[in-house]
Write a structure and sequence with these properties.
With about 300 residues, the chain is an alpha/beta fold. The protein folds into two domains: about 70 residues, no CATH class; about 220 residues, Vaccinia Virus protein VP39 (Rossmann fold, 3-Layer(aba) Sandwich), CATH 3.40.50. It contains nine helices and 14 strands. Strand 2 and strand 3 form a beta hairpin.
C-alpha cells in the first residue's frame, strides 16, 4: 500500500458513500464499497470492475486481495467504448444491484396474444423509484431481496447472451441497463420521453463509459444509414409498457436496425409462475421478424429472451 490517500467516492453498485482510502486500495480503484467488492465473484458487473481495478493495481504494484483471499490478475480490462460521433456522450446505467422492487404485475395491454408482462412507470423520477424500490414502490425487505436476486440472474443471462459490436438500446429509459451494454460494445441509446436521455447520460457519465445517446423516437423507421447497422439490440422493460400498435412499431424498427442474424435480448416483467410454453408462444407472436432462441424466467418477476433477426 502507498501512503497517498484518494478522495472519497460513491460505490457504483450500491450507492454507499466510502471515505478516503489509500490510492492503491483495490476497492478505491474499482469504485466499489468493500462489501460489493467481496461479492464480485457472483456478479458480472462487479467482476468487470474488479478486473479493471486489478489491472490498475498491477501498474502501481502490490498484491490484490478481496475479503482476505488472493485474487489473480485478469488481462481483460473494463471495456470503454469511445465514440467519434458528434452526439456521442459518456453514458452509463444505474447500478443494477440497486434495482427496485416492481409493483405486482398488472394486466398487460390487449394484443393478438397477451404477453404475461406488467408495465413500469413512464416518468423518469417514478421509474428511478420503481428500480430502487423507493416511495410508492417500497414493498419491504423480503420482496426487495427476491427482486434483486432476479435482477442478478437476469444480468448473468444478458451477459451470457454475448451482445457485442454495435449495440442499439431502444427505449433506454433511465439507463439502468445501459452500463452493461456500453461496457460490451459501441452503444446507441434511444428514448424520446422527457428526461430519459438526460438520465441515461448522467448514469453513463458516472461509470465513465461512452455511448451515443439520442432523444429520438426509437419506434420510428431507421434512417438509411441506420438500417442494418447494428449487431445487437436490447429491450429492457419495453414490451410490457406498450399497447399493441406502438409495440409492433418498436419491434419493427428494432428489427430494421439490426443486420441479418443480429441478436435481440429482451428483459421484462413476467407474472409469477408464468408457463414457459405460453411465454415462448407470446414472444414469438409479438417479435415479428425474429427467430426466438430462448425464453425463460429469471426469478419470480422477470423473464429473459434471446432472438435473432430473420434474413431479409
Amino acid at each position: 500500500m502507498t501512503g497517498r490517500l484518494a478522495a472519497g467516492y460513491t460505490c457504483l453498485w450500491c450507492g454507499t458513500t466510502c471515505g478516503p482510502a489509500a490510492a492503491d486500495d483495490l476497492a478505491t480503484l474499482a469504485r466499489l464499497c468493500p462489501d460489493c467488492l467481496g461479492r464480485a465473484g457472483d456478479n458480472p458487473f462487479l467482476r468487470r470492475r474488479l478486473r479493471a481495478a486489478i489491472e490498475a493495481r498491477s501498474r502501481i504494484g502490490g498484491s490484490a486481495t478481496v475479503a482476505g483471499a488472493a485474487v489473480a490478475s485478469s488481462p481483460t480490462p473494463l471495456a470503454v467504448v469511445s465514440s467519434p460521433a458528434p452526439l456521442a456522450v459518456v453514458s452509463s446505467p444505474a447500478p443494477l444491484a440497486a434495482q427496485p422492487v416492481p409493483p405486482r404485475p398488472a394486466p398487460s395491454p390487449p394484443g393478438r396474444l397477451a404477453l404475461p408482462l406488467a408495465a413500469p412507470p413512464d416518468d423518469p423520477d417514478a421509474l428511478d423509484d420503481w428500480y430502487l424500490a423507493r416511495g410508492a414502490f417500497d414493498r419491504g425487505p423480503i420482496p426487495a431481496a427476491a427482486w434483486l436476486a432476479g435482477i442478478d440472474a437476469a444480468v448473468e443471462r444478458v451477459d451470457a447472451a454475448g451482445l457485442a459490436g454495435r449495440i442499439v438500446e431502444p427505449r433506454c429509459g433511465v439507463g439502468f441497463w445501459s452500463v452493461l451494454l456500453a461496457s460490451a460494445g459501441e452503444l446507441t441509446a434511444l428514448d424520446d420521453r422527457p428526461g430519459m436521455a438526460d438520465r441515461t447520460t448522467a448514469r453513463l457519465v458516472a461509470h465513465r463509459l461512452r455511448a451515443h445517446v439520442h432523444a429520438s423516437d426509437p419506434a420510428a423507421p431507421p434512417r438509411a444509414d441506420e438500417a442494418g447497422r447494428y449487431d445487437g439490440a436490447f429491450l429492457g422493460f419495453a414490451l410490457s409498457r406498450l399497447a399493441p400498435g406502438p409495440r409492433e412499431s418498436l419491434v419493427a424498427a428494432t428489427r430494421d436496425r439490426l443486420r441479418d442474424g443480429g441478436r435481440l435480448v429482451v428483459v421484462d416483467l413476467g407474472r409469477p409462475g408464468v408457463d414457459e410454453a405460453h411465454l415462448r408462444a407470446a414472444l414469438s407472436e409479438h417479435l415479428t421478424g425474429f427467430r426466438l432462441a430462448e425464453a425463460a424466467a429469471a426469478g419470480p418477476d422477470l423473464i429473459v429472451a434471446v432472438a435473432e433477426r430473420a434474413d431479409r
